[in-house]
Amino acid sequence: MSRFPEAPKSLLVHAANRSNNQPSTRPTADELRAARRAQVGREELEGPHPSTLGADLSDAGLAHADPTQPGPGQRWSTWRSVAKGQRGPEPLPDWLVTRDAAFDTELGILKTGKEADAFLIERAVPPGAVTPSDGGSSDGGSSTSAERCLLVAKRYRSLEHGQFHRGTEYTEGRRTRRTRDQRAMEDRKSAWGRAVSATQWADAEFVALRSLWSAGAPVPYPVQIDGTEVLMEFVGTEVTDDAGGVQAVAAPRLTRERPSDDLLESYWEQLTHGMSVLARLGFAHGDLSPYNILADGERLVIIDLPQVVDLVANPFASDVLLRDCRTVCAWFTARGLDVDPDVLFADLLAQAL
Length: 353
Hints:
Layout: H1 29-39, E1 48-50, E2 74-76, E3 103-112, E4 116-124, E5 148-156, H2 168-171, H3 179-186, H4 191-214, E6 222-226, E7 229-233, E8 236-240, E9 246-250, H5 261-280, E10 283-284, E11 293-296, E12 299-302, E13 309-310, H6 317-334, H7 341-352
Antiparallel strand pairs: 1-9, 2-3, 3-4, 4-5, 5-7, 6-7, 8-9, 10-13, 11-12
Helix pairs in contact: 3-4, 5-7, 6-7
């Protein structure tokens, strides 16, 4: 996985519960993760994140002597450094930056988890930057790629550093692309087996996102995968404050929302559509809940899919799917919408089979 150069601590953004636009100092990454898990609830890990481009570039401390080279907390765009099969499906969205001259700038942590952390990344082309191989045009013409976009980098931890190991309930029936990797995963004592196991969750999520996005499911666009790092679409908005500073605000989880009756019905239709797409592709989410669904205004976006379950090959699939149905139906029922988890389960199972 491509790593960012070590950035000065003054550049690292404390993403949770920010009250101003100034970057704040923080302890080491391990200390920060431990403190957040002990003191901060997962709903509180959403908030504004200052952008480093435009009027705030100098204030953020990312301006440096040579603007054509990555500075602290930056790296070259990794779009072309990964194989074509490790990139998102076509057609590519208009907002995605694919130019070679782009920098990836790490802005801060969006969310911490037991097996992975999510970081906010700004991929942007510096003003005037040009490289001989730049752009997506094969005939040498100018690129139509966007100049700037926000991404989420979900980075899975190794087995030694993760605090949560998903059970065989999810992985039963799942196979890797190469049989030798499958054999290695079954031998956790070998170094290769541990390395393959550490990447299986990232690979499973990326493959699921590719299939679901192409089929029209409400999921983030999967930009690329590089080892244990999955880059995907940032779901949220950008706002400008009175001082001219730009902030990226992540969409809240569904569990925090109190929608009107009309919007609640729309949310239900969107969610059941997404679950239907999953079922028709032979999948169950496996961990679907209001915590794994984002409410981006009037649209829902399903996230966190590393544990997708094969509805045919996994003997626990029916139990997992029924649990998903009961969990989401309980939230909608508590808000006044009359929905039946057993009816939803039967409908999804029929579509899968």
